[in-house]
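Journal club side-thread
Mid-discussion, someone asked how the predicted structure for our own chain would compare to the paper's figures. Pasting it here so we can look after the session.
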Amino acid sequence: MAAKSQWKFTFFKFWFTQALSLIGSGLASFSVIWWITEKTGSSTILATLAVASLLPGILLGPIAGALVDQFDRKWIMIISDAVSALLALLLVALFWTSSIQLWHICVINILRALAGAFQFPAVQSSTSLMVPKEQLARVAGLNQALQGMSMVAIPPLGALLLSVLPVHMILGIDVLTAVVAIGLLFSIHIPQSISHQSITGVPMKVWQDMRAGFAFLREWPALINIMCIAALLNMVLIPAFTLVPILVTQHFHGSAFQLGWINAAYGFGIIGGGVLLGVWGGFKRHIFTSLLGLAGLGIGSFIIGTSPRDAYWMAVTGMALVGIMNALANGPFFAVLQSVVPPTMQGRVFTVLMSISMSAAPIGLAVAGPLADRLGVQIWYVLSALICAIIFLWIVFSPALLHLEEKQIDLPVVADAVKL
């Protein structure tokens, strides 16, 4: 019995290290974004920094995941946390001496994103090795709760700290939480999976997996449509969230507190949507629940984009609606994919889907920044609502997408395609 319960103490110590890192990084990110918003008031600069943070994960995600399988995951996490902490310490010094420049932040963001590209798969794969299979769903729910609570708590807390502390001291909290997390990691035993893949074989393995994923998609055009839909949504919605600080300062003439509460509203929405989906379960046909969520995303974006200057709380309501509907759109959508893509192909297919769909986000950011600077930030939210409406009609008038859950694909066909 003791052996069965031992994993709980070990895992929750590990979980606590990740919670510490999340809190420290979230507070640091909020304070730096607010500083940039106050200093520049530029949508283009915020969008550029977002691109710098996204690209390492998009470009290195599949390779980092393959490499994580070849090395000691605990040391990967320790090194990633240490690199992030040292970079945060560098930011502390630059802010403290008033020598900070925007290019410093951009370069440091890229380097921290590179570290994160290895940290994320190491954490995910370690969790599956530390937790009994029958407890993984509960742990996943716990992680979702942590993410939701962080979205609710960190923005208002960050705003409060900005009112009493300089930026470099808030960044110091990030350094401190990372040091504590690293210290705890040294005392945690993390099991290692046995891999027989040589380091030199990793690039070929990644290439083969991507080819298999593309071959599967080529045999099922409806999934290619889904990939295009996900790419369009990422292209408009990721820039919309990136530009929230500009919306608050330039349209509503708000402070860090207003930014904190509008971000927290999204977090409350995510939690509420998850609870609603968990209790209700959605429509019998998952695609209909996703359509409801998609319609809600468009309505919420339209509310934000048409809120008058003196109607800040109207935009907060729209952001909460976006959070709720995001949960309704994404949860059933992934359930559809998991139900139609065979388990033996899911890793490869999902990697291709995620890499290609996320690659559209930098394109949207490159357009959104200059467009918002020229025509006003609200135009992007109205455009997002229009894209959501187009995608809604695309799915409704596409029988292949509406009936996707009823389809299955012949795996031997895919295997033959990969050999070609």
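Post-session note: The first helix runs from residue 2 to 40.
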